[in-house]
Amino acid sequence: MTAFRLAPAKINLALHVTGRRADGYHLLESLIVFARFGDRLAIEPAAADRFSVSGAYGAGIPEDDGNLVLRARNLLRRAAGTAAPPVAITLWKNLPVSSGVGGGSSDAAAALRALCRLWGFDPRDETVRGVASALGADVPMCLAARPLVARGIGHDIDVLPSFPALPVVLVNPGVSVSTPAVFSRLASRDNLPLPRLPRFDDADAVVSWLTGTRNDLEMPAGILAQGIDTARAALEAAGARFSRMSGSGATCFGIFASTDAAVWAAERIRRDRPGWFVEATHTMASGEFEDEQD
User: Fold this and answer.
1) Cβ contacts of residue 87 below 8 Å, gap of 6+?
2) Which of 170, 175, 176 has its CA nearest to residue 270?
3) In this structure, is residue 77 part of a structural domain?
């Protein structure tokens, strides 16, 4: 039995930095959605543990315990307290590395979901959620993989009961950004939280609400990495209704009026910027996420 899982791109539609704890962790409020595009994993029983990486962005990905996928395997096996059998894991890396769309964290969350399937655990179990938290602030939200608001250091999660799918284009101008370096450049760490969330009945409501929000990491990321402003300008020139950088960058997203408009925009940007990562996709609506089955 082989378990196949999508590790969807995580998109911060809005990200407000609201403070900083004494231990140095920043406090955030972020509206997050997940794309129908991302990395992919296949996990199957094996005589001995194996791990391999391929895909457009697989070069240079660590294949030892420095990889979050293997840390997820090891921590879940340890937490289970039983002899979880060996597995062979294949990761197809389709997302740029260190690009603000949660690639490594989403990979780890997808590995947890697949391993739960193979080893007979419930991914909603407190033990599994504890493993996700131990792997990093983004992993619990990637385990949920639904439209949500994350607060605090990312572990306080409210899944949104109603949120529409959005046609989007993801663009990365070919640069990676260090998240700690971005946070170190923040001019202000005590900013206003997200405004009150309305009922998001459609994309119009989402775009309208987003105009009153921010990504507080976009300015410091722009200082560290050239091309973020250019990426947003390319999205807007191609017809995006709204654009912004995701996470700590440098990937930017544009929301489009329709699937056709997003596909056309991606083709135009890809033609004009052949060295960039460009992908037209949809975000998942509330209740839409269906993990790939065996």
Assistant:
1) 43, 44, 45, 46, 49, 50, 73, 115, 118
2) 170
3) yes
Instruction: Tell me: do 152 and 226 sit in the same domain.
Output: no
Structure tokens that stand for 212 in this block: 């009153």
Question: How many helices (DSSP H) and strands (DSSP E) are in the chain?
Answer: 9, 10
Query: Catalytic annotation on 138?
Result: yes
**Which of the residues 39, 107, 138, 216 is marked catalytic?**
138
Same domain for 116 and 38, yes or no, is: yes
Q: Both 17 and 49 in a single domain?
A: yes
Residues 6+ apart with CB under 8 A from 23: none
Residues 146-184 pLDDT 10s: 999 999 988 899 999 999 999 999 999 999 899 999 999
> Any catalytic annotation for residue 10?
yes
Read off the pLDDT of residues 52-106 as tens digits, 9 standing for 90 and up: 999 999 988 888 888 999 999 999 999 887 778 999 999 999 999 989 999 999 9
Which residue of the set 10, 39, 93, 107 is catalytic? Answer: 10
- What range defines the domain where residue 233 resides? 167-282
Tell me how far apart the alpha carbons of residues 10 and 37 are, in angstroms, rounded to a whole number: 10
Does a structural domain hold residue 294?
A: no
Helices 68-80 + 126-135 axis angle, to 10:
150
